[in-house]
Design brief:
single chain; mainly alpha; Proton glutamate symport protein; membrane; transmembrane; transmembrane helix; cell membrane
Length: 434
């Protein structure tokens, strides 16, 4: 068993604490310039690595996800229900997240003076956002849809701001692959499947640098923000606490409202019995932050304890591990609005609707591994023209929230499998262990 200090989430938390301490010491000891010149760049490198992996991750994951739907030709009815349920729960999750963050407004806990300091830190990005917003107002009502279809896929892949175009291309390629003869398509499927595995490994490598990236980012944020007034740093920590509460509250509401409604409509089981039946899968997902790694356990518990037929479980759950990320989508909505609030940026209704669309599509391409949610958040932030560097504000607590949202992701996969099994007449009796 790993010693606690060798586990990544503890290392990230240690990096956060040390970054805060260094930032406070640097602001008092006159080391601000040293921190900005020689420490903060490593945080920038970490953010750039996240941006670097975003396009290939979405492309490969989505193509693999779409080609996995090849069984829809045999199980078209079940496939349609599965995708419909997953899309519905994802949109509900994002809507709940946006509602909670707009009501609580955790980013507004920062004084206006502190928000102005953060704005100054990202002034160039914010100026670009304002220019883009003015251009957006002058656009036609259907230009947004037109922009999703690229003229040049290479050009789209060169700019993370065109991620929706990459999503479109990936879906189109996936559909094309499953429409050609299997012998020809198998080569491409294996290629993108292998590419997806390689990228997930790269995500693992990048996340190994997360403790150092968090240290550098937080030290830079504190130095930029605090100056000679350390109370500003405390204001930031207070707002971060409210942000965590907003995410956790949103996740709880989603489980109690959406999943409970699914059980009432499509089964007679009680939600507490359902949780007892899949408890090992939830705990494993919570500890590993990986819905993909937990998939074998989830399938075993859903089939043997919940009573979902193997035909349904073997079809619905693997797809869910690829395209159903309710907890991740909700977190992305809360995080994006929180960062915008902390930077003093007001998001319009159109921008918040963009969050719903982008987070839904991004969740389809989110790999079920630790840290993938942060990469998807890069996509959402760029879609609404919010400085990506604002991720520095939330990285320190992301691992804990990642564990919670992964547990919700797994719960959502299992809940949808119950609903689909019921509609197909393939839901048996629940078997609870003593």
């Amino acid at each position: 068993m790993k010693k606690w200090y060798k586990q990544l989430h503890w290392q990230i938390l240690i990096g956060l604490v040390l970054g805060l301490i260094w930032g406070l010491i640097a602001s008092v000891a006159g080391l601000s310039s040293f921190t900005i010149d020689y420490v903060k760049p490593f945080g920038t490198i970490f953010v750039n690595l996240l941006k670097l992996i975003a396009v290939p991750l979405v492309l490969a994951s989505l193509i693999v996800g779409v080609t996995n739907l090849n069984d829809v030709t045999k199980l078209s009815r079940m496939g349609g229900k599965t995708i419909l349920f997953y899309m519905f729960t994802t949109v509900c999750a994002i809507t709940i997240g946006l509602t909670v963050v707009n009501v609580m407004q955790p980013g507004k806990a920062l004084p206006q003076e502190t928000q102005a300091e953060l704005q100054a830190s990202y002034s160039q990005n914010i100026e670009g956002s304002e220019e883009s917003a003015m251009e957006f107002k002058e656009r036609g009502p259907l230009d947004f849809i037109v922009d999703i279809v690229p003229q040049n896929v290479v050009q789209s892949a060169s700019d993370n701001g065109n991620m929706l175009q990459i999503v479109f291309v990936a879906i189109l390629l996936g559909i094309g692959i499953i429409q050609i003869p299997k012998e020809k398509g198998r080569i491409l499927i294996k290629f993108f499947d292998s590419l997806n595995d390689v990228i997930i490994k790269l995500v693992d490598f990048i996340m190994l640098t997360a403790p150092y990236g968090v240290f550098a980012l937080m030290a830079g944020v504190i130095v930029d923000l605090a100056g000679d007034d350390l109370t500003k740093a405390l204001d930031l920590l207070g707002a971060l606490g409210w942000y965590c509460i907003a995410v956790l509250l949103g996740l709880i509401l989603h489980v109690l409202i959406v999943y409970s409604s699914l059980f009432k409509m499509f089964s007679k089981m009680k939600i507490k019995d359902f949780f007892k039946a899949i408890q090992p899968a939830i705990l494993l997902g919570f500890s590993t932050s990986s819905s993909s790694a937990t998939l074998p356990v989830t399938m075993e518990r859903v089939e043997k304890n919940v009573g979902v037929d193997e035909e349904v479980a073997s079809f619905v759950l693997p797809i869910g591990a690829t395209i159903n990320m309710d907890g991740t989508s909700l977190y992305q909505a809360v995080a994006a609005v929180f960062i915008a609030q902390a930077l003093g940026l007001d998001l319009s209704i159109a921008q918040q609707l963009t969050i719903v669309l982008t987070a839904t599509l991004a969740s389809i391409g989110a790999a079920g591994v630790p840290g993938a949610g942060i990469i998807m958040l890069v996509i959402v932030l760029q879609a609404i023209e919010v400085p990506v560097e604002g991720i520095a504000l939330i990285l320190g607590v992301d691992r804990l929230l990642d564990m919670c949202r992964t547990a919700v992701n797994i719960t959502g996969d299992a809940a949808v499998s119950v609903a689909v099994a019921h509609t197909e007449g393939l839901l048996g009796e629940m078997h609870l262990e003593d």
